[in-house]
Design a protein that fits this description.
The N and C termini lie far apart (47 Å). With 277 residues, this protein is an alpha/beta fold. It contains eleven helices and eleven strands. Strand 7, helix 7 and strand 8 form a beta-alpha-beta unit. It is globular.
């Protein structure tokens, strides 16, 4: 098994056919066919159903796909780190929940770029399941997320308790959920507590699982929804959004999950984390 076989397999999935993959990779169709055949022989399973019109994953191919993605990603990272210019001393790979770029991610990156220019920062945005996997396989050294990581290789520290507040474009909006209410999905615990607080209300017509998208939608179309106070502070100050009086406030804890062995060697790390306080 080699990296070109894995890349070719992923390109066929992405493009939907061997012909399109050969064009994307700038190789002949016979080369693509040979690579796929070699990969299937090594794996011991048929990975693709091939037709004149295209190609589809088999059940084995569906299972194999995620491993191929991880292996290609790790290979890219390995080449990236090994080929670092001599002026750089280390690479810090950071996994980041999408909603944590504003504030947490920004401040961490700004501090490292200003105070530790010899460290290369690689930021990997993703949802919790992706971040858990990246931590477990060593793709990231540090993650800012909402769930602590178990295991002796990791240290989880609480950074802050995010406040989720109901805001509205209507200054006089009430606590009841109306037709313009947007349900912003902040995870399992939030869903449970939200259901308890608003048990008798009609479900929202719009659900958005990313706070930045929800802010944009509410500002453009009007309405209300639960959003992190840190993300809407400027909009509240400018009068574009208003905190709904009497609405319950929910908390969501933010963690820094660290590969303890890796971060222990970083002399700059303590100051960078202190900058997040």
């Amino acid at each position: 098994m080699n990296i070109n076989e894995l890349r070719t397999f992923l390109e066929v999935i992405e493009t939907g056919s061997l012909v399109a993959a050969s064009r994307r990779l700038n190789v002949s169709q016979s080369t693509v066919t040979a690579r796929i055949s070699a990969l299937e022989e090594e794996v011991g399973q048929k990975l693709l159903h091939r037709y004149k019109s295209g190609a589809d994953l088999t059940s084995a191919g569906f299972k194999f796909r995620r491993y191929a993605e991880v292996m290609v990603q790790l290979w890219r990272q390995a080449r990236y780190e090994v080929s670092l210019p001599k002026s750089f001393e280390a690479v810090c790979n950071v996994g980041l929940e999408f909603d944590l770029w504003q504030g947490i991610g920004q401040r961490f990156l700004d501090h490292v770029r200003e105070h530790v220019p010899g460290v290369v920062i690689a930021l990997w945005p993703g949802e919790q399941r992706q971040i858990d996997r990246w931590l477990s396989i060593g793709l990231v050294d540090l993650a800012f997320c909402y769930v602590p990581q178990a295991g002796e290789d990791f240290t989880s520290r609480v950074l802050v308790d995010d406040q989720l507040v109901m805001v509205s474009t209507n200054e006089d909006a009430g606590v009841q959920l109306g037709s313009s209410y947007v349900f912003v999905d902040h995870g399992d615990e939030f869903r449970r507590r939200h259901a308890e607080a608003f048990a008798g209300d009609v479900p929202a017509a719009v659900t958005i699982a990313a706070s930045e998208w929800a802010v944009d939608h509410i500002l453009r179309h009007g309405g209300a929804g639960y959003l992190p106070r840190r993300m809407v502070r400027e909009h509240i100050a400018a009068g574009r959004l208003h905190v709904v009086a009497g609405a319950p406030v929910f908390g969501r804890r933010i963690y820094a999950v660290e590969n303890a062995r890796t971060v222990r060697a970083w002399a700059w790390y303590g100051a960078a984390m202190g900058a997040l306080g």
